[in-house]
Amino acid sequence: MALSALVALMGVWFAAMASPGPDVVQIIRLGARSTRAAVWAAIGSTTGLVVWTVASLAGLTALISAHPVILVALQVAGGGYLLWMAFSAISGGIKERRAPATVVSTEKSAPQPRGFTPDGIIKLGTAYRMGLVSDLSNPKVVIFFGAIFANFIDPGMGFGANAVVGSVLIVESLMIFVGVALCTRAVSKWMSKNSANVDIFSGVVFALLGVIILAEGIRGVLAL
């Protein structure tokens, strides 16, 4: 692959990864309470991208094209999970807003959502899993991978060369996600004081994404 093509690919990838989606919203949501949790969620989301990258390189995109029912199943499952995340975030935010007012001096003193301990510490494994499942809940990623590889990668390059390009994109994604996680620290005081609103807003975004993906899945079921 020519250097100019790689740079163009990285530019397209940056725009896609940095745009608001389940991954970015989840990272920001956790970052409202714990930068460390947000970073581990970012690592989890990146792991999800690794799964989709490997699946795409292994031919999942072509398999989905040949058997659309696979995408339908992924869309229904992913949309359903996003709606569950929306319910959890919104209900948690509403409960927090209804709770007695407390003075928030650190990120540990704020009321915590599901997955956090009472003292505000989230287990690294929990944060990682939340990021991972958030990314895997969006099956359209694999279609995006297929489009990216089809337009920028020469099949004649071979699996090894394509894997190298995929690795570059994964590293770029990790830098973007971790960057988002660290940026939340700059406004952590404000976000901690408004963590309930962050939860509710995140839930609304999750709900919209979930409805869109689930609707596409249902439409696919009806078309079978």
UniProtKB/TrEMBL annotation:
Q: Where are the transmembrane segments?
A: 37-62, 69-90, 159-184, 196-215
Task: Cite the InterPro entries for this sequence.
Answer: LeuE-type (IPR001123)
Please give an example of a GO cellular component term from this record: plasma membrane
Q: Where in the cell is it found?
A: Cell membrane
What is the residue range of the signal peptide feature?
Answer: 1-18
Keyword terms:
Cell membrane, Membrane, Signal, Transmembrane, Transmembrane helix
Q: Name one GO molecular function term.
A: amino acid transmembrane transporter activity
Tell me where on the tree of life, at the top rank, the source sits.
Answer: Bacteria
**Record membrane topology:** Multi-pass membrane protein
**Name recorded for this polypeptide:** Putative threonine efflux protein
Q: What is the lineage of its organism?
A: Bacteria, Bacillati, Actinomycetota, Actinomycetes, Mycobacteriales
